[in-house]
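Dear support,

We are seeing what looks like truncated structure output for some complexes. This example has two components. We would appreciate it if you could run it in full and send us the complete C-alpha cell output so we can diff it against ours.
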Amino acid sequence: MKDKGELLIETKGLRKNFGSLEVLKGIDEKIYKGEVVTIIGPSGGGKSTFLRCLNMLEEPTEGKVFFEGEELNPKKIDIDQHRQKIGMVFQQFNVFPHMTVMDNITIAPTLEKKIPKEQAEKQAMELLKMVGLEDKVNEYPGKLSGGQKQRLAIVRALAMEPDVMLFDEPTSALDPEMVKGVLEVIQQLAESGMTCVIVTHEMGFCKKVSDRVLFIDDGVIAESGTPSEIFENPKNPRTQAFLAEVLY
Amino acid sequence: MGKGIFEVLFEFYPIFLRGLLGTLEYAFIAVFFGTIIGALIAIVHLSKNKVVAGIATVYVNVLRGTPLLVQMYISYFFIPMAIPALNSIDKVYYVLLALILNSSAYVAEIIRGGINSVDKGQTEAARSLGMTASHTMTKIVLPQAVKNILPALANEYIAMIKETSLAGTFMLYELMYTRTLLANKFLVWQPLFIIAGIYLIVTLVLSWVVRKMEERLSVSER
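Here is the complete output from our reference environment:
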C-alpha cells in the first residue's frame, strides 16, 4: 500500500434512502490522494449509490461528504466548482451524441473554466492520442464502438483536470472484446498517480490495480483491505460468500 | 343539386384562396405565440418548486381538457363582458387569444416531453463535469430535445390548421367561413366538399414535409 497522502474525500455517516428503501445505511470512509480504491459487492448493495453521493449526483439523506476539506452541500456551496475537480465515468458512457468527439471534450473546459478554445483543443488532441482515438476527432459518437465511447468519456472527464476520477462500472455495458482496452486506460491512469474510485465487477482488474478494496453489501462497507487481504483472506462471511460466487 | 363542385371551385376560387390563407395565417399565429407561451409554461412545469409546477399542470389540464370551441366562446363573450375597457378591441383578437392559449397548452406538453425524452444520463454527465444547470440545459439537453420537439411542433401546426375551422363560427375569414359566404348564394353542399378537399391536401402535404424533416433530423449526427 502506498503511503497515505493528503485526505481527499471523507464520508461521515452517509445514508441514502430511495423512498422507503434504505440503500446506504451509514458509511464512514476516507479516501486519500493518489489512492486507487475499488468497490466490489453484489448488485443492489449500494456501490453505485455510494459513488454517486461522492459528487452529489445523489444527495445523501443523512450524513456528510467532504471533498478536499469542504463539505459538499449543494444548498450551501457552488457544487459545480467542486464537480469540476471530480471526474466521473458512467456505465452507459453518456457521451454527447450531438457533438463531435472534439466538442465532447472541449465543451466543459471552454464553458466552465474559460479555457481558450485553441488551448482546449490542443489538450484534447493529447488526451485522444493517449487513448488511441486521435483519428476520430471529427467523428460523432454514433460512429464509435462502445469501447471507444467509454475511452472518449474518460478523456472528456480528464480534460477538466480533476483531482479524482470516479468510475461507475465502466466496463459493464461493453462487449467482452472491448473491456480490456478500457481497463488498460484506467490502469494507466491509476499508475500515473490519479486518485481513482472504481466500482467494478472485474475482479482480475480489481486485484491488479487496487491499493484498497471496499466490499459494500446491504448498504454498508462490510469489509475493506488490500487486494490480498480481501481476495486471499476475507474475514467477513458475506465477503467470503460473494467471492465464492464471483471467482471462477 | 345545382352547380357541380368544380364549377363552384372555378367560379369562386378567390374566396377559397383567401379562406385558405386566413386558415394558414391564424394557425401560424396560434402556434407561433403558442410556442412562446408554451415554452414558458414548460419551463415552469419542469420547476422543482411543486406549487409553481402545479400551476402549470392546472393550466395545461384545463386548456387540454376543455373543448376549444368552449374556450373561444368564453374568450369572445365573457372577457369583453368582464372587462368593459377591452370592449373596443376587435373581436378577432378574442378568438385568436383562445387559439393561442389552447395551442400553448399543447406546445408546453410537446416541449416538456421533448426535454424529458433526453436520457437522464446526459444531464448527469454534464453536471458531473461541473457544467452549470443552465449550460446543461442549453448546450446538452435542448439541442437533443429539439430533434423531438420540431416535428411535434410542425404536427401541432397541422392540427391547428384543422382547429381554426372553429374560428369561422365567429366570422373570422378562414376556410370554413367560406361555407357561410357561399351558403348565402344558395351553394350549400359544394363548398363543403371543396373545403374538405383543401384541408385534406394541405394537411397531407404538410405531413409529408414533416416526415422528410424527421428523416433528416434522424440522419444528422450519424
